[in-house]
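Appendix C: a fully annotated inverse folding record. The material below is reproduced so that readers can follow the format used throughout the book. The structure is listed first as tokens, followed by the designed sequence.
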């Protein structure tokens, strides 16, 4: 077996081992790295992984080119900071945008989606780390914007996304995942909403995220080791 296959199988095993509801968990293979060649993409597909994540529009477009007709088999997830002027390039085909981080971006996605008569699945990215380098809504601002966000008819807000703080301290990492789940529950209670998805956990911390209720894990580097 080659390494991608082994690594995918290991992550799938870990989902069963660590998740509180393994049948609900989806693995998004993050393909943004230059080492991810066409062969590696094909190997992911051979292992049943058809959900890919990219964080830059241009790199995503390069992947579409690389895959040719096979690109249509993929559920493309956008996981990075999305500039408003780039929304138009992905709106036709994007499966889920994980990184809605401000009202103006949500409105732009809604407007473009409405134009083509589609409803787009999105997640709201929350910045729980307090680090400037991390994109995402500040919690207070998110709560303030909820009434406006839920009015956007061409957005299907499925849940929340976060990135854990960049630290070796497992308690801090676990705390931020726990917090995201609590925010989801509190939004559902207060706004009678039905958020179900928690996109959290990367190569270094996905086991903790699974224990804390992740429904989507976004794994990159570990798959190509
Ligand atoms: C790169 C990236 C990942 C994957 O990170 P790895 O550490 O390579 O698993 C997950 N989420 C986001 C938002 C990313 O930018």
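Designed amino acids, in order:
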């Amino acid at each position: 077996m080659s390494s991608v296959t082994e690594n995918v199988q290991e992550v799938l095993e870990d989902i069963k081992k660590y998740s509180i509801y393994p049948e609900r968990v989806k693995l998004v293979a993050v393909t943004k790295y230059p080492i991810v060649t066409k062969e590696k993409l094909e190997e992911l597909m051979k292992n049943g992984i058809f959900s890919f994540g990219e964080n830059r529009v241009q790199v995503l477009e390069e992947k579409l080119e690389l895959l040719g007709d096979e690109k249509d088999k993929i559920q493309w997830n956008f996981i990075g900071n999305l500039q408003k002027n780039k929304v138009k390039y992905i709106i036709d085909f994007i499966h889920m945008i994980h990184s809605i981080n401000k009202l103006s971006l949500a409105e732009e996605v809604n407007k473009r989606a409405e134009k083509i008569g589609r409803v787009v699945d999105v997640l709201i990215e929350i910045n729980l780390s307090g680090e400037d380098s991390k994109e995402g809504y500040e919690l207070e601002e998110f709560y303030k914007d909820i009434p406006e966000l839920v009015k956007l008819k061409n957005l299907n807000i499925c849940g929340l996304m976060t990135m854990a703080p960049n630290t070796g301290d497992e308690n801090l990492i676990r705390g931020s995942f726990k917090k995201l789940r609590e925010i989801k529950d509190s939004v559902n209670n207060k706004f009678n909403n039905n958020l179900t998805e928690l996109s959290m956990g990367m190569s270094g911390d996905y086991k903790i995220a699974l224990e804390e209720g992740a429904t989507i894990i976004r794994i990159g580097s570990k798959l190509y080791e």
